[in-house]
Amino acid sequence: MEYGTIFFRNGGEIESDIGQCRFQSHMMNIDMIHNPVLRRVAEKALSGTPVDEKDAIAMLTTSDIAELGHIADFVRRRENGTKAYYGVNMNLNYTNVCELRCPLCAYSRDEGEEGAFTLSLDEIEKRVRGAVEFGIDEVHIVGGLNPSLSLDYFLEMLRLIKRIKPDLFIVAFTATEYEYFARRSGMELSELFRAMIDAGLGALPGGGAEIFDPGVRGRIAPRKISGKRWLEVMREAHRAGLKTNATMLYNHIEEPSHIADHLSRIRELQNETGGFKTFVPLPFHAENTALAVEKQATGFDHVRIYASARIFLHNIPHIKGLWMYLGEKLAQVMLHFGVDDIGATYHYEKVVHAAGATTDDVGSEERLRRIIANAGMAPVRATAAY
Q: Which is more confidently placed, 5 or 194?
């Protein structure tokens, strides 16, 4: 991403020639930034200079969230103006049977355990047809690592969805799932992605990133692929021409240094491939999991995470704050702290609710548009393709 030249005007606006596209937005008032560390961050944001991990840790620990938010909102408006995105989609969680049984996960089951399920292709067809009647644009698919399912099941799943409604955009399977599919099928990732694209795949979700730090990852998801391997899978997806999301799980045992490192590795890969469309911080819900976590994120913690991500990840177009994870009110507030996408309707979502999320498991388009408009932003319906 090019920052180009920023021209300051006396009228309280800036004009830029970034990427050959001219825009105007409210100028950041540098005089509002009194914290010397944040003032340095603001100066970097204004000049288009990337912040570093030391800056990230300072942002993640500051109590001056109004000043931090002022910087994040400037970057957010520079990237997306007053647009705020939402989607009308369904979540397809095809199985909760999973070999990994990560301590952080409340969703997974062993085969034969009470509550375990695997959807047949006929059941998937029924669910997708029902959601299509509601008017969805997109299907978001993730599930467990179930050894009873062959690659043909997944390829036929994608073909089936496309037969039901050819213009549905399919966002399917995490990097962890693709690593599993490739290993079990004996296919190279590049070959696997070609097969998936031919079957109808449009993009990848960003799940499974968790926290890249090996020490933290070893405690919260000891059998999941490493952070290094997650990045390698995403690199291959980008090389195949696929756009992807990237995520980060917070509010468990991580420290600010782990978050800074995670953001840095995401940004580094983005500099190389340009394949990430959206970064999605995900607050951990501990209920019903095997991970003993005493701390609970405060409102300030959430603000620091999203605002810092927006400022640090200058090369990723979108920051998503999922209303289903944050709650509607906090997601709405985040639209002024760096977030430009609040998520989608999420018909049939199961994973976060298994961990104790108390939000509704489906939202209406009218409701999402109202949340955005009430925050003074312009609602824009979109898929992961934007």
A: 194
